[in-house]
Amino acid sequence: MTETDVWRSAIRLLDSVGASVVCGCPPGATSYIYKNCTLNKDGKIDAPDIMFVYENVLYICECKGNFLDLVKRNNGTENDFEKVRRLSREAQSGGYNDQVRENFLLNLDDIAGFAGCVAFFGSDYILPKGFSVLFRSTQLVMLSVSD
After folding, report:
1. What is the per-residue burial (b if ≥16 Cβ within 10 Å, else e) of 116-130?
2. Cβ of 147: how many Cβ atoms within 10 Å?
3. Sequence-separated contacts (24+) of 106-110 with Cβ below 8 Å
4. Distance in angstroms (rounded) separating the CA atoms of residues 110 and 89
5. What is the 8-class DSSP label of residue 74?
6. Pairing of strands 132-136, 140-145
7. Rounded mean pLDDT of 93-104?
8. What 3-state class would DSSP assign to 7?
9. What's this model's pTM, rounded to 2 decimal places?
10. What domains are there in the chain, each with its CATH number?
11. Which residues pair with 46 in a beta bridge?
């Protein structure tokens, strides 16, 4: 399964549980349904695959075809577990508040917290420290972390 398959499955799962997708960037493409997820902090631009609100928490999510792809270093710097943890910490500290309000028209008064999320296919994985299972279907697993 590809990263795009995981992205599509995650969008369908989020819809089925009543989550609200704020923005979405399918791998290597543009979504014509969702705004692109772009976060800019001190000139560093990040484009998470999906941002969504579920139970008053804003999740910043990266998708990969399988668990092992999540632990590979992106451009030699950080893996996706580290990336979503960094992005959620920055969001919790208020670093993206103006962008989230302006770009995605999200009222942050309704948001109780921020969390990172990774999505992948498979049942063979080791739960990374600090992460918990957010959603699981027959193929898709979504893990979350909030520090």
Report:
1. bbbbbbeeebeebee
2. 11
3. 106/22, 106/53, 106/58, 110/56
4. 18
5. B
6. antiparallel
7. 89
8. helix
9. 0.92
10. 3-145 (3.40.1350)
11. 39
